[in-house]
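BUG: 3D viewer hangs when loading the predicted structure for this chain

Environment: internal workstation, default settings.
Expected: structure renders.
Actual: progress bar stalls at 90%.

Input used:
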Amino acid sequence: MHVLGLINVIPSHGQSDQNYLYASIHPKTNLPRILLPRNRDLTVQIIMFDKPDPSRMQYMSLTPISLALGSKIYGDDDAFPDLNLEGEVQKERARKARLVNKLGLHTVVRHPPTQKEMLLPTILNQMNCSSELGRLLSNNVHLLRPRQKRVLSVGERVVESATTLWDHALAILWHVVTVWLYPVATRAFVIGLLCHRIIAEVILRVLEWRIRPESLAFKDVSATAQQVDIRLQQFCYWPIQYLTLRKRKDEWESITDRHPEYIRFYNSLWLVANDVIIGIALGSYIIDNAEWVAFQINDVLSSWTIEGLRDMIVWLTDAPAGLKLNNELATFLGALFIWVIDHWKGIASSLQ
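Structure tokens produced before the viewer hung:
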């Protein structure tokens, strides 16, 4: 990074640097005016853009953001398997990937990228870092020209002493929290997380256990077991995803490599929270209106599985829609099915 010139500074005669560009912006217009050095043959192209805000994950890119799951993101099939897809779907995706690779071998050879095209990613990266770089320069502008401190008055000294004492007390309190309380709480949380991870791994092994290699696992025959398997796998990978997101604070926020992980992490959290909220709301409604819900369920089951079937069978034993049937056979089958319905009615009455 180097200085190209000055903005809103009128160079005086004999003091202007022949290598600098001088730009001025008129209050009535947003278009800058560029003054070029006379002894240099330069072509200046001005690109005006709204700076992306990295705190809102705004950035410019040549390719759309990828939200693919599993090995396509992490590049390690064993460490990060696809959580939401079954084996057949994974095989189909692998087959399509092989077909795409074969198709790439038969395409027409493209022209080599020009120098301008090769510089596009670098230019976009600089544009994405412009907002964060501006804040960094603004926060460190005092290092360029340190100001001389003036002599403080008596009142200002008293205020500074009180402020210093309060800051000292806060520093002691912060030291106690960070040195004593935080490590103990962190260690207890990690131990609890490890115990929960061990229990989750044991349950996952039970759900994935097969009597024979060609037989189905318990999660393949039960929808509840499949949901438990998915939730436990999400819980096992949440700490890894969270540690990946924590690395964003150690680097530039304008780097967009971890935005898909951010979206997937909070999307999975929201899905789990949504299931819990809906389950609690539905359970509370059923508990508060248990008698009415039981009456409605009983009424619907009686209407559709008992009374409705009985009326239909009675209608079929006669001449339904004017059709002539075997009366003896229709009567026998109708009596048989009515007996079955009466038996089911007795079982439903006992369940009430």
